Amino acid sequence: MLKDKILIIIPAYNEAENIERVVDNLTDNYPQYDYVIINDGSSDDTRKICARRGYNFLDLPVNVGLSGAIKAGMRYANFYGYDYVVQIDGDGQHDPEYIAAMAEKMKETGCEIVIGSRFKTEKKPGGMRMFGSRIISWSIRVTTGHWIQDVTSGMRLFDKRMIKRFGYDIHYSPEPDTLAYLLNSGIRIEEVQVRMRERIAGTSYLGNPMASARYMLQMMFSIFLFQWVRKKQK
Amino acid sequence: MSAILRGILLLAAVAFAGYILLKIRKCKVKMEDAIFWVCLAVILLIMGIFPKVTYWLTGLFHMQSPANLIFLIIIFLLLEKVLTLSIITSQLEDKVTILSAEVALRSHDNKSRTEAEEEQIQKMSTEGAIASVSNAGKRSEAYVKDQSQG
């Protein structure tokens, strides 16, 4: 039921070293899924590679950030009438193998969002990065009553209703604060255990401490304050 | 600190916070951008509710009156905001420049591509027409031959 209407969104910012590997794996081993790459104004050869290899890609002329790229992808999905969207990273840490299990979970539970989670059944490791993740998990637990283990996972499956909202609403960023707000609006979110690879090339955008602190500040304000003034729509 | 000044601070804090939260509710401002205004409202609120904090800070900075300190704090915060806004506007301006250049470039590229394709189609169709005309000529010759033989 799910197979022919799933779109995979691959946001890519300066992923020239990874994008070929990711997309070739997708087209060779998972031809049943449609995909679109969102080139987020990359300054390296990402666009050239996509054009040369004849990939299906949206080429954003300027860099708009991850949530802007996801927004573009969601609008693409809405425009071409897709029913489900899977977001995976352009660096190859997410294995498309798990998409089937995530879709299965959605069908089974009738939930609106499925997260490909590193810590659904496996234990969360310590360390600074996970410290932030723990705080956000706990904040969501306190404000919504639900545990989400892998809040920062970039691998998520959305249904049609979520496609519309993520494509058109100013506040819907692909971040954990949106998950907290959605849980409080009565949207159901499930997690499926996946294994993620370590990044093979390139660097993550949450690399430096200033950016991390800023990110945490935003999440805390959003989860503890702003979500309560937003209009709830089921 | 006079009661009127405290009243003004409290009123301003509530009005600020209320206004920015309303804007969030109406989807008119991004949540990231509201953080600053919420913090400003909290600072005003603290200074209004606990004048002792203000007096303590006034002593710390060797200032004449708490009102001066409040002005100074607000001016610094606003300066910071103007500075970051100025940086953001120049980045946005640059983005708009790039965006318009890219849109122009891409529509130009599209146009020249369609023109080239149209030309090719036209060429192909005229060639096709010539071919069909010459075919027809051959056929009529053959017909004449057939007739003469018959």
What keywords describe this structure?
heterodimer; A: alpha/beta; Spore Coat Polysaccharide Biosynthesis Protein SpsA, Chain A; globular; B: 150 residues; mainly alpha; 4 helices
Describe this entry's structure for a reader.
The complex is a heterodimer of chains A (234) and B (150). Helices cover 43% and strands 15% of the residues of chain A. Chain A is an alpha/beta fold and 234 residues long. Chain A has a single domain (3-229), classed as Alpha-Beta Complex (Spore Coat Polysaccharide Biosynthesis Protein SpsA, Chain A). In chain A, β2 (34-40), α2 (46-53) and β3 form a beta-alpha-beta unit. Chain A is globular. By secondary structure, chain B is mainly α. Chain B has one domain. In chain B, α1 (3-25) runs antiparallel to α2 (31-49). At the A-B interface, α8 of A face α1, α2 and α4 of B.
CATH superfamily of chain A: Spore Coat Polysaccharide Biosynthesis Protein SpsA, Chain A
Helix content of chain B: over 70%
Question: What is the succession of H and E elements of chain A?
Answer: EHEHEHEHEHEHHEH
Q: What's the level 1 CATH class of chain A?
A: Alpha Beta
Q: Tally the helices of chain B: what do you get?
A: 4
Largest sheet composition of chain A = 7 strands, mixed
- Our count of domains of chain A comes out at 1
Query: How many DSSP-defined strands of chain A?
Result: 7
| Strand numbers in spatial order across the main sheet of chain A | 3-2-1-4-6-5-7
Residue runs with pLDDT of under 50 for 5 or more positions of chain B: none
Number of domains of chain B: 1
Number of strands of chain B: 0
- Identify low-pLDDT runs of chain A: none
Q: Tell me the span between the first and last alpha carbons of chain A.
A: 24 Å
Largest interface: A-B, 15 and 17 residues
Say what the CATH topology of chain A is: Spore Coat Polysaccharide Biosynthesis Protein SpsA, Chain A
Strand content of chain A: 5-15%
